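[09:14] KT: can someone run the structure on this one? pasting the chain below
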Amino acid sequence: MILTVTPNPSLDRTYELPDLVRGTVLRATADRVDPGGKGVNVSRAVAAAGHRTVAVAPMGGPEGALLARLLGEHGIEAAGVPVTGSTRINVTLVEPDSTLTKINATGPELSAAEAEDVLEAVRTRSASADWIACCGSLPRGLPPQWYAELVARSHRAGARIALDTSGAALTAALREGPDVIKPNAQELAEAVGRPLATVGDALKAAEELRERGAGAVLASLGADGQLLVEASGAYFATARVATVRSNVGAGDASLAGFLTAGGQGPGALVSAVAHGAAAVQLAGSLMPTPADLDPSAVALSTDVPRDRPLTEPAP
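[09:31] RB: done, C-alpha cells below
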C-alpha cells in the first residue's frame, strides 16, 4: 500500500482550446476536472495500476467535498483532514500544439492545529504502508520544517519516505534522511546552488544531495530521461515517446511507478520512466493504466552519459 500526503491539494480543471487568444471569449473543445496535487496524482497512478493507496490531504469547503468524492471514484481511500479554508482550483489551458498555460491558485492557509491534524492523520494511517509519498508545495501556514517533522516522525514509526518537494522545504528535510527524493532538473540545480548543463552535472548534484542526507535521488531530466543515484550505484534511462499531449502529472506518475516497483534499483527506474512516458501521451492529468505502459521502449544504462548536454539546461 502506498500512502500519499498532499499538504496543498487541488481540483484540476483542464480546457482544450482550438487557439489561445487573449482578450476574447474562448470555447473549449473538451474539458475535464480531476483530483489534483502531486501526492494525489501519485495515488491516482497507484490506483490505476491496481494497487491500494490512501491519500491524506487537508480538504475544505464544497471544493474539498468534491475532491473527496472524485478520489473515491478513482478507487482511492480519501483520508481528508477538515480545514477552514476551501480547497483550491487550478486551471490548465491546452493548445493544439500541446502548449500548456497553467494557473495555480494559492490555496487555504492552515492553522497550527490543522497542520498537526494532518501529521496525526499520517500516523494513524501509515501502519500498513509500504511507502509514504510526501509531495508538493506547502500551503500557507506551514513552515519549511513541516516536511522534516513528518519525515522524522514517520522514520521513528519505521516507515519509508519518498519526498517530492523543493526549495527550503527540501533543504530542511534532507537532514532527516528521506529514503528517496524526486527533484526535477530545476529543483536539483536550486538545491545545490549551481546551474546544470549536462547529465554529468545532474549526477554530481544528486551525489551531493545523498551526502546531505537523501538515501536515494530519482531525478527527472525532462525529455532527456531520468537518473537514479542510490547506494547500489547510478543508473540512467530514457524512453521513446511518439507524441507529447500533456506533461501534467507525468512526474507524479513516474514516482508511482518507481514505488510500486519496489522503490529501488534499475527495475524500479525502468518502471518510473515507463509510467512517465505513458503519462505525457495522455490528455490532461490522466494517469496511465497497465495497458498504457511499454517498458520495452525504455533504454536503461549503468554507464551514465556524463557529457550529454541537457536539452533544457537548469539555471
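[09:33] KT: thanks! The chain has a mean pLDDT of 95.
[09:34] RB: yep, looked fine to me
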